[in-house]
Specification:
Elements (H helix, E strand, L loop, with lengths): L20 H6 L8 H15 L2 H10 L11 H23 L5 E3 L3 H9 L5 H20 L3 H7 L2 H23 L2 E3 L10 E3 L8 H18 L5 H20 L3 H4 L26 H6 L1 H29 L12 H17 L5 E3 L3 H6 L6 H13 L3 H4 L4 H4 L1 H14 L8 H17 L2 H18 L8 H15 L7
Helix pairs in contact: 2-16, 3-4, 3-5, 4-14, 4-16, 5-13, 6-13, 6-14, 8-19, 8-20, 8-21, 9-10, 9-19, 13-14, 20-21, 21-22
């Protein structure tokens, strides 16, 4: 009797036991994570960055374009939330990284205080869209990293610090803690404490307490510190207004009153209100190009640093220091910049607060799906966002400005004056001239001049000389009668 043929050895299943389609798509197990960790991470990131829902409308809504038009606060909330939800979900589903996106602090100040006063709001947002297109073009041609490397690290850090100081000044002015002394006073001192040289009134007290609370929570490393402070001080402001019935002008931009209905349909009135090239007709080709360049630079390096920083913390960078799929991530970042302009919420960029989610264990794009989903839910809570007074929200600007400075100042080589002086000029000229463009321009020009003076001009990339020359010509245009 013949012996039966041995049964074939069992083959390994195509996918590990228990691995779902969700797991395979996002590579959850492969990256050493779990669905529960991704959900926790997505929640943590949302609550760490949700303050932008309040701050972005305050910054954009407080400015006027050349025709005196202001953007509607409710529409700005919708635009801000919509773009954050879209770009965060896209980064999660396509990029598969736990890096959330929303309107960038700093670039929204450029749009509000530099672009809009020289043109219409659609023109200004059109320039943001163009900056996004340029980012995508640089990524597609492989030039983005080369352009980034052309600007020395120290100068990049000086620009970042300048934006942080500028943001802090905006917070101090919008809160009423500092006010401008009118020219009629005939004094060389441009700013004063409070409205008359003294601090008084409930709104200022709300700001002071909010600032101390925000900093205390950050020092204690409390997750969502900025959002907790905004919510707490908004509740306090509502209580103060209920008891005191202060006049609207005491609060400035927003009176803290509980809305009759906290839930409302989103208002998409600003979506698509864009003129791609209208701004060039208002300010001229050269100034328009410089404006686009300023928007580009304001989010370009910050996004690159955030992507690499969060990627490293999430252990997504390989042993050779490479970030697999970096071009796909950078392309989505460029699309986010353009989409921010298309919705009138200003350029959207990667948020370093994504590290809050990474700290909770997030390693994949599933965390972004959770964060983006929460932003989508917030679309229907616009009345709650528009009741937050600037005195409760602007302490976040001081905190963010400090964190930018603390994270950048140590990376400047202060012993090398050819980089330290341009970095210093870039960081101080932004708040002192109330212009991010001026800070960037003076930083670039002084860097090229000092490197030439030191006999090190050959080491400066040609791109730096080209950009510096453009800035010099721009500054000389009034003297040449070209403006």
């Amino acid at each position: 009797m013949s012996t039966p043929a041995p049964a074939p050895a069992p083959t390994a299943p195509e996918h590990p036991s228990g691995e779902t389609g969700l797991d395979r798509y996002f590579k959850i197990s492969a990256r050493g994570s779990t669905v529960a960790r991704e959900v926790r991470g997505g929640l943590a990131t949302f609550f760490a960055m949700a303050y932008i829902i309040v701050l972005n409308p305050i910054i954009l809504g407080s400015a006027k374009d050349m025709y005196g038009h202001q953007l509607d606060g409710g529409q700005l909330v919708t635009a801000t939330v919509l773009t954050a939800a879209f770009s965060t979900l896209l980064m999660g589903v396509i990029g598969n990284v736990p890096i959330a996106l929303a309107a960038g602090l700093g670039v929204n100040t450029v749009v509000a205080l530099q672009l809009a006063p020289r043109m219409s709001w659609p023109d200004a947002m059109g320039m943001v869209v163009l900056a996004g297109f340029v980012v995508m073009l640089l990524v597609a041609t492989g030039l983005r990293e080369r352009v980034m490397n052309a600007v020395p690290l120290g100068l990049r850090k000086g620009i970042a610090i300048g934006i942080g100081l500028f943001i802090m000044l905006i917070g101090l002015v919008d809160s009423g803690f500092v006010s401008r002394i009118p020219d009629a006073a005939h004094t060389t001192v441009p700013l004063q404490l409070g409205s008359d040289g003294h601090l008084h009134g409930w709104p200022v007290l709300i700001f002071v307490i909010g600032t101390l609370l925000t900093l205390a929570l950050i020092i204690r490393k409390v997750p969502g510190a900025i959002l907790i402070s905004i919510v707490t001080m908004t509740v306090a402001a509502v209580a103060v207004q209920l008891v005191t019935s202060l006049p609207a002008e005491a609060w400035g931009l927003t009176v803290p009153e509980w809305p009759g209905n906290p839930v409302a349909a989103p208002d998409f009135g600003l979506v698509g209100q864009v003129s791609l090239f209208g701004g060039f007709g208002k300010v001229g080709m050269l100034t328009g190009v410089l404006f686009v360049f300023t928007v580009l630079l304001s989010c370009f390096f910050d996004a690159m640093g955030t992507i690499l920083g969060v990627g490293d913390e999430a252990k997504l960078i390989d042993k050779d220091g490479n970030f697999p799929g970096i071009n796909r991530v950078l392309l989505i970042d460029g699309l986010a910049v353009a989409s921010g302009g298309a919705t009138s919420s200003s350029a959207t960029t990667c948020f370093v607060e994504s590290t809050a989610g990474v700290g909770e264990g997030a390693r994949t794009g599933l965390a972004n799906v959770v964060t983006g989903g929460l932003f989508a839910v917030a679309l229907f809570l616009t009345p709650l966002a528009t009741m937050v007074p600037s005195q409760a929200a602007t302490p976040a600007l001081l905190a963010v400005g400090f964190l930018i400075l603390a994270g950048s100042v140590r990376d400047i080589d202060w012993s090398d004056f050819t980089i330290a002086v341009p970095a210093f000029l870039a960081m101080v000229m932004m708040p002192f001239t109330y212009s991010i463009t001026n800070g960037i321009g003076i930083g670039f020009v002084s860097f090229c001049v000092l490197r030439l003076a030191a006999g090190r001009g050959r080491g400066v990339p040609v791109a730096m000389y080209v950009v510096a020359a453009v800035f010099v010509f721009s500054y000389a245009m009034p003297a040449l009668g070209l403006t």
